[in-house]
Amino acid sequence: METTCEAAFQSLTDNIGTFHPGNKQVLIPEMNRAGAHLIAAVCRSFGIQGRVLETYKGMDLGQEFTSGKECYPCQVTMGDILFFIQQESEKLGRDFNPENYVYFMPESDGPCRFGMYNKYQRIVLDTFPGLDKLKIGSITCRGGYSLDGFLEKEKVRDLRKMMYLSVLVADILDRMLWRIRPYEKEPGSADHLVEISVPDMAAAFESHAADKDTEAILRELDAIIGKAVDLVDPTIPRKPRIGIVGEIFLRMHTDSNQNLIRKLEKHGAEVVCASLAEWVNFVNYIEKRSAMGRLRLNVKRGRLAAMRSDLKQAVTAGLELMYRESRQKDVYRRVWRQLDLAEDHKISHLEHALAEEDVFSFDIDTEACLSIAGIMEYARGGYDGVVNVYPFTCMPGMTTAAIAKPLMARSGVPYLDAAFDASIQPGREAAIRTFMYQAQQHQRSAGNRAAPSN
Ligand code: SF4
User: Cβ(123)–Cβ(8) under 8 Å?
Assistant: First the structure.
């Protein structure tokens, strides 16, 4: 028994980590659709066999191998990897070899359970014969999700830059869809454009990422945006604008949030959802902030070696953040020549906004900082309503709900909490309809039919 327990613990350290994948296929779970496909394309450009897992088809497996107490995204991704193994082993028969794959599941530390997904999934995989050989590749928020060890040292920097560009482009494709779909001349044309554009964009990344030819990649994006603008009927008046914040997986994974954005649009909304790049920048910002905090402490204690190491980490994280924010600005500016997409919130600005209101602090960490500050910024920016999306029992989601509700009641901007698990809540549609009625009233009373500021 002792040996079995020891082996199980050993597997948590030996079979989860940052591995050079070599010839193995890297299995990437889908969160926002374009994002996973573009990241896989960047991997392939750098010689890594990136492959996107089909999502939400294995929910029965996800539910069978979880107790229901885990976070909903853990259940969904558990189902995705088990479904893949089931399908792949059926397809390949005796040729199926778990050693040929690395399942990619990042983690984070802190009070949140995201750090436990890959541990729990490791334990489940290890209960199946042979699946202990299927490694879990993980990167962590410590080091700002750095990809060190994932590839040869000299290529890691370029890979990281191109991954970030793919995250930006995926965000822009999403925002483009939400900006044009409520105003399309032909119903379904915006969805169709995105459907055919994701493979084109992935092909551009696969061909040009390793050569760092960003101009060729962005030219492909320009062409897609140009086509999107042509789909819009300019006579349709501006609709109430709704901002979405919340837990990153749920707000981006359309199956898990039961197509919330489409439902809001059905009741007359134009939606802007917090982006993946915002999360990446936040992780970077927190890393720099924590290193600065440790540095101040070590200066007081006079620990020279620790001070040096903290300073190095703060400078590295600060430079990375500066690079990312300026790259983000450049790409958005380029898109604005054709289409007025909403800009992302700058993280330092969100921290100041939160400090001004004095209702929460970045010292507490977790996504709640981003969500609460994001809600306040949407309200200040002239939005007609805000939705907080999170998995049922999500700690940062519930913290956000508790703090944001009274704030939003004071501001007079309609606000909705939307907690999800795999079940269908019969009252959801009515809640959305009521919320959208309030948003329309807000738009009317604010007289903001003209385009609000981004
Ligand atoms: S943010 Fe919420 S859903 Fe995600 S790991 Fe933390 S508690 Fe779970």
Answer: yes
**Domains assigned to the chain:** 2-149 (3.40.50), 237-275+345-454 (3.40.50.11900)
Q: What is the pLDDT of residues 299-358, one digit of tens each?
A: 999 999 999 999 999 999 999 999 999 999 999 999 999 999 999 999 999 999 999 989
Beta bridge partners of 137: 17, 104
**Whose CA is closest to 229, among 333, 338, 342, 343?**
338
Q: Would you say the CB of residue 112 lies under 6 angstroms from ligand 1?
A: yes
Residue whose CA is at the smallest distance from ligand 1 atom 2: 394
Q: Are 411 and 381 in contact (CB under 8 A)?
A: no
**The token pair that represents 115 in the structure block:** 């750090």
Looking at ligand 1, which residue's alpha carbon is closest to its atom 7?
394
Rounded-to-integer distance, Cα 63 and Cα 117, Å: 14
User: Ligand 1 within 6 A of 114 CB?
Assistant: yes
Q: Is 250 in the pocket of ligand 1 (CB under 6 A)?
A: no
Exposure on the CB side of residue 161, measured as CA atoms within 13 A: 17
Cβ-proximal residues to 274 (8 Å cutoff; 6+ apart), any chain: 243, 244, 245, 246, 251, 344, 345, 370, 371, 374
Q: Which two tokens stand for residue 373?
A: 């500050």
User: Tell me: the pLDDT tens digits for 110-143?
Assistant: 667 888 899 999 999 999 999 999 999 887 766 6
pTM of the model: 0.93
